[in-house]
Amino acid sequence: MISHRCGNGSGACKKRTSEAPFRPTNAGCHAPLEVLPVASVKGGRVKPYVWDGSAIRAVEPAVLHEGETHHGRLVDHVKQLHAAVLGSFLPQNEDVTPDYWDYARWRAAHRLFSSVLSIFATQSLLQAVGVGARKTLPAAAAINWVLKDGLGRLGRLTVAARFGQSFDADLKRFRWATSLLFAGCISLEYLTPLFPHHFLLLASVANVGKSIGLTTYISTQPAIQKSFARHENLADIMAKAQAQQMVFDNIGLAVAVTLTYLVRNSPQARMRMPLIALPLLLGGDLFAIYHELKSIHLRTLNKERAELIAEHWLQTGAIPSTKQVSKAEPLLTAPRVGRGQLRLQITSLEESLRDPDTLGLLLERHRKDRYMNSTGASIGAAWPCSQAALDASHAWAVANAPRFLEQLQKSQWQINPFLLSSLERAAYTELA
Prior knowledge:
This protein has 3 domains: 2-89, no CATH class; 96-294, Up-down Bundle (Growth Hormone, Chain: A), CATH 1.20.1250; 300-427, no CATH class. 61% of the residues lie in helices and 7% in strands. The protein is built from 14 helices and 6 strands. The chain has helices at 61-66, 70-89, 99-129, 138-167, 171-191, 199-226, 234-262, 267-294, 303-316, 322-328, 349-352, 356-365, 383-410, 422-427, and strands at 2-5, 34-42, 45-51, 56-58, 300-302, 414-419. Residues 79-316 form the Protein root UVB sensitive/RUS domain. It comes from [Myrmecia] bisecta.
């Protein structure tokens, strides 16, 4: 994005005044540069426009200080090249949210560890099926390889069909859980050279788990990348992410090839090196993924984030930031739904009512609402007392909910759509 500064410094352009006239620079044997009253702003970098006697162009500030010398032109070209390289791999600062940069750094570390892990895993599988050995059975190796890939595809199909609707509602937790699964399954691939007779079993189980992790990764990436976009520039962010991934995957490839080359003359070292490196690589990979996910500040609402926001508002009277909620969201434990001060659950009609009389009372009480509050069918004899407390809570909520919603709408949160998992959708009852 390019803009121009004019005006009084606070607007888009800065006009020339009597205190800031056109001024020539010391250009040595070249024609002096005449500074014009406008500047180009691109990617947060300001470059003043100058007239060099034949054309108007934007130059680096260093050129103005050093003049139109060979060194000044070299500095200008180097900075332009540096900006072009960065622009190929990173979006403009004003095009993404602030949390993008921490995410990008941790994702780069994750891709590096993951690349080395995958290469050593493939090496282990090839050793297990006998590739490189003097006595190998190509047909048997090929059949085993095809079978384990086929079972992996079935795993991907099952996950995509079963959990597709739940990914949006709980992006980070699904991604973390399947990362742990991926780590466990890739460890099985490292063990295949030790148990070559069980290659098909180990490799198939590993490939199913890895396929589940890959499906989750591919499915959640667009929603995560979209959370960083400020100007509907999702395609640009995803393209830059692919470029970054290729760079760090290739760096990981170079690291793995170098380590393999160093032990090329020792069959035992080639066998043991992946197993020795496995704990370090897995630890680094999971550490990077965890911090990568914690750095993402999702702006959409699911039930867990909505409860965290509401609890914070009840305690402080203010809407928490996306960073505060992201920090409070656990990845290692189950969702904090119905366990805080707001012990509310989305449930079905049959689970929340004791008898038809209760239904009649609720329909009368909530005839103007789009929901019904109930203490649940298991309350039993405590119904009158619980219902009185529920009525008082409902009256307070009706009186204060407009203020809460008004503050929420003015904040950085996106209140529509409200994301529900497939289980929450199944429990939700829409009454006609």
